Structures are given as C-alpha cells and as structure tokens.
C-alpha cells in the first residue's frame, strides 16, 4: 500500500471494528492515508494501538470494545464525536471463522459466535448510530464486510457462510429502509484472505496443499489481501460512491463467477 494518499477521504471520520488486524487493519491504514480520522474498535487493545501508531500522526485512536455490547457501541460513538467532532462512516468488519469441519460436528458455541460477531453488530450499530445520524440530519454510511462465500457457500464452513448471508440480506434491507434519510448501507464480499483466519479456513493448519485447494477456485490465483479490501472500502467511503446503496461489491479474484 502506498504511503502517499490523494486526500479522497479528507475530513471524513470513521469507526472501523476489528481494525487491529487483517482486513480491518488494511481498511484503517487506507482510510487514514487518504485523510480520514478513524476510531479503531477491537477487543485486543494492543493490536488496535499498534495499528493506530502506524497511521499518520493523530489520524487514528485505539478503542478497546466488544462489538456485541450495546454499551461499547454507545461509548465508541461518544468517543468518536468527542475526539473528532462527528461520525460519517461505520465499517462493521470484525469477524471470526470456525474451523472447517463437517457441519454437524461444529460446536454450538462456534455457531453462536459466528452470528454474535457477524450479525449482532449490524443490529447494534443500527440501533445506536442511526438515531445520531437522523438527529444530525446529514446522512451517513455503513459498510459491512460480508463474504463471497455468501453467494458461493462451500462445505465445512456452512455456518460461517450462513452468518455472512445474514450480513448481505441486512445490508440490502437497511439500505432501502434508511435511504430517505440519506443513510446508506453497502457491503463488500472478499474471498479468503491473507489473514489470521487462513488456518481455520483450511481445517486447522496453514499448509501449501490446503492453499492449493483454495487457489484452484480463484481465477486470479491468489488470496485477497487487506490492501485489496482497504482499497474498495475507501472507494465506497468516498464521495465518488455517493449514489451507491444496497450494493454488495465482490473482492474475490473471480471466485464468485
């Protein structure tokens, strides 16, 4: 990722969940390079702090928070407005994946975790942020991170895929519901990426053989990267995408074709 931005997000303020690693870190870095201020929400404060310190000075603040907690969402909103004066964009990126295995063998706690971390934050961010934006009267934007596995589910990761399906459906429905308030919802659907999730996606360990199986399904022949996701999220957050709502943008190297 280039360290020189074009200023396309100059003056914008965002909350990025799961911003301490993986796709979230790529989004935070791209946003701040392009001029945005970001509150990095992550359960791991050290990770969030490390990413914040790598961004342009004063552009990012680490916030330890649980995306399944309404209290933490309210605190994140309050902190953002206090630090940066406003809020323009929310990126629901925080995510996990259960270890790939037969669907009937996935532990119930893993199933519950998929929906708690992927779906509940959409409900909570809507509950907390929408009234704030409606009161401000200037609109807003939510970007939700879904997955290409939503339209193209695969065996052994069905419960992960199903939770991401809920993300896409909620994105579309909310985009229609709040369009009258100029509050937009879009989603991005990455393929498997170069993140800490790779071992679980491969069934427990990151091996060349496992990667070959994944890459055989991706026409461009590589995994997605945090930079890929950050670039597309940046476009969606920019004024160039102001007419887009309810869109699910694939970042998948052709896997969904």
From TrEMBL:
<keyword id="KW-0560">Oxidoreductase</keyword>
<dbReference type="InterPro" id="IPR036291">
    <property type="entry name" value="NAD(P)-bd_dom_sf"/>
</dbReference>
<dbReference type="Pfam" id="PF13561">
    <property type="entry name" value="adh_short_C2"/>
</dbReference>
<comment type="similarity">
    <text>Belongs to the short-chain dehydrogenases/reductases (SDR) family.</text>
</comment>
<protein>
    <submittedName>
        <fullName>Uncharacterized protein</fullName>
    </submittedName>
</protein>
<dbReference type="InterPro" id="IPR002347">
    <property type="entry name" value="SDR_fam"/>
</dbReference>
